[in-house]
TrEMBL record:
Origin: domain of life: Bacteria
ABC transporter domain ranges (all copies): 12-246
This protein's name: ABC transporter ATP-binding protein
Gene3D superfamilies: P-loop containing nucleotide triphosphate hydrolases
InterPro entries to which the protein is assigned, alphabetical: AAA+_ATPase, ABC_transporter-like_ATP-bd, ABC_transporter-like_CS, ABC_transporter_ATP-binding, P-loop_NTPase
Molecular-function GO term, any one: ATP binding
PROSITE patterns associated with the record: ABC_TRANSPORTER_1, ABC_TRANSPORTER_2
Amino acid sequence: MTQTDALPDDAIAIRGLRKTYAASKKAAPKTALDGVDLTIPRGSIFGLLGPNGAGKSTLINILAGVVNKSEGEVLIWGRDIDKRPRDARAALGVVPQEITADVFFTPREALEVQAGFYGVPANARRSDELLAAVGLSDKADAYVRALSGGMKRRLMVAKALVHNPPILILDEPTAGVDVELRRQLWAYVRRINALGVTILLTTHYLEEAQELCDSIAIMNRGRVVACEPTPQLLRRLDTRNVVVTPEHPLDGLPDLNGFEALARPNGAFAVTYRKGQSSVEQVLAAVRAAGVTIADITTEDPDLEDVFLALTYGDADQADPTKD
Ligand SMILES: Nc1ncnc2c1ncn2[C@@H]1O[C@H](COP(=O)(O)OP(=O)(O)OP(=O)(O)O)[C@@H](O)[C@H]1O
């Protein structure tokens, strides 16, 4: 980060981003990003969610300079990746998905080598500070091969920060990590964010996005289908389903005086109501008023998964994005 740049409001600003991978002998051209607009505010922990094939890796790889975009504008820390590619990339630290361990180095050496690679002068290096930030001070001189999986991941985070980038990208940081380790890693991500680093993370785990991120964008089939502050997204969850199994099979779905019924297997139907506005009692009254004798009822609280599915798979006419 150079001192002369004013702090931008947006850590990353993306407009009209498109990417079509060229056809190969075996495959037709593939549009991975289909007009993405995304703004990641400075200082945030921003989550990018989406099913396999949604375009998350393509987007991250364009930011990292590994994949060329087809169209659109990308500013990283206010720097256009077409006009100032080196400056733009210098503002990023990227932690890749796979653990890459430097088995012959100690964590401190690994950070020094990485700093050398980025041309960080010796007097500006802060290996010890970074090791402390990720909780590896007491392992500074251990062999990396002796570190646990979680420690190696934390070392990778420290390595991505050696050139003091204002933005850290974490690609699936906790894939395959157990719950305890996941929580530990989240704590380190929060700590780094508190030090002023903007975080962009991709994840398949809704729980992770919900816990960690102040804003969440959901991608599907190369587009952003939702982008909201996390509490706003969670407010969409202010609903509950009542699942009713009628005593006798119905000819069709009952008319429930304003409530909508959706068919469920085995002759049951579900009614969704907003918790603040109605109650189970009102739903059941409408069901009885429609002449339905109730054999059984259950209630369900939807979670982020339901919002996610509704947003990403809601359009039944579209092909499943996970099937190429
Ligand atoms: N090098 C490539 N050549 C051709 N098509 C590609 C290439 N890389 C990705 N794609 C296609 O682009 C689409 C988006 O893939 P991408 O990897 O960006 O999605 P993703 O959201 O990161 O998925 P995942 O969570 O599985 O990593 C997919 O249909 C994928 O098959």
